[in-house]
Amino acid sequence: MTAKKPLSTILVSEQVPAHLARSVIEEKLRSAILDGRLPAGTAVRQQELATLFGVSRMPVREALRQLEAQGLLKVVMHKGAVVAPLVDEDAAETYDLRLLLETEALRQSIPNLTDAHLAEARYCIDQLDTETNPAELGRLNRLFHMALYAGANNRKLLRMIEQELNQEERFLRFHLSSMGLGKPTQEDHIALVDAIQDRNVELAIDILQQHLANASHTIRHYLETRASA
């Protein structure tokens, strides 16, 4: 359902430095889309955002392009940019695609990962272990995985992975509390980082494959149960 509220009632008006405008606007919109303040179908108008943030339309246009590339916005004829739909039935297929993309990214990344990357991943694990907010769980899970793929040479591959992780993050924000999973276990995440630390590429890929396969099975079961209810 399209939101009836204007963007100015959802996003906080603020003046931003010109050199930071695109990144600030992109992050503000991204957060509002992911946490549901901007529901699917909401029109996101360039001029309204430019006025709201006190900038020209150019950084707004660039921010919207980035969000479109991430799968969070889509362009509709005669309407412009709108928040993309949350297509629940694609959630399981997202994991199938992630399996293909992320194993290749991990293979490329491991030789180039630094101690800083691994420290970032372990920090995410620590936060995931104590976090209970579904919105924050989704964000931390995305950051964890992207930290492990940061060493991959193929930038297009990383953009594709981040787009799929964005879709997963939106799905989890809206459904995690009703899935009855309880506190997420970090065993796979810890084992994955340990294998990477040891530069054991094949073991790391095996762990990642099993991790994503288990997640896919859980999502499919949830969707099937919900459909038959």
TrEMBL record:
CDD domains: WHTH_GntR. InterPro entries: GntR_C, TF_FadR/GntR_C, Tscrpt_reg_HTH_GntR, WH-like_DNA-bd_sf, WH_DNA-bd_sf. The keyword Transcription applies. Pfam families: FCD, GntR. GO terms for molecular function: DNA binding; DNA-binding transcription factor activity. It comes from the Bacteria. Keywords: DNA-binding, Transcription, Transcription regulation. Residues 19-86 form the HTH gntR-type domain. This is GntR family transcriptional regulator.
